[in-house]
Amino acid sequence: MYNRKTIMPMECPHKTLKHNVCVCNTTSKLLLKSFLFSFSVFLRFFVNFPSAKQYFSQFQDMEDPEEMEKSSQLRKHARRVMNAINTVVENLHDPEKVSSVLGLVGKAHALKYKVEPMYFKILSGVILEILEEDFGECFTPEVQTSWTKLMAALYWYITGAYTEVGWLKLSSSAV
Ligand code: HEM
Asked: Where does the Globin domain lie (predicted)?
């Protein structure tokens, strides 16, 4: 069973930076597959940015984090997000695959769920925040740079898909 202390080994073997973007497959895979990690990310995301809940029918009116925790929709989405990011990490050597995975995510969120793209940027910030808090000394400046680049790449591909489908409000409204 993973916990926050064990999902990231003390000596992260991030000697093989891929395209200068990510840490290393082993570390990030363990991390991204960790339920605890994805769960902390999404709880904080929805507690600190409650307007993001508007897209989720099951918990849009919930305020109590303990109640939100039980939502199967929240859990399922957290898992999907981490799986998608993990697929990106595993395919950093293959830009076409990365583009196709994130293109589909972008198009679904623009056309089907109509999510304001700014929420992707906010979510990236929360992911980076929790990584820094939970992994302290393992989150070295080098690792931080890698994750920041990964998050920026994600945002770039996803918003590229938004633009492709004609979503023009990329720098919109307040949260
Ligand atoms: C990197 C960030 C994200 C990734 C990789 C991601 C990934 C996914 C995936 C794979 C699905 C299922 C796709 C489908 O139905 O075709 C999904 C569904 C969904 N996503 Fe995201 N997502 C992300 C961020 C967000 C954000 C920021 C929001 C809103 C604030 C959001 C709202 C939704 C909603 C409402 C659904 C449908 C949920 C349901 O039907 O239960 N997603 N997401």
From this structure: 23-163
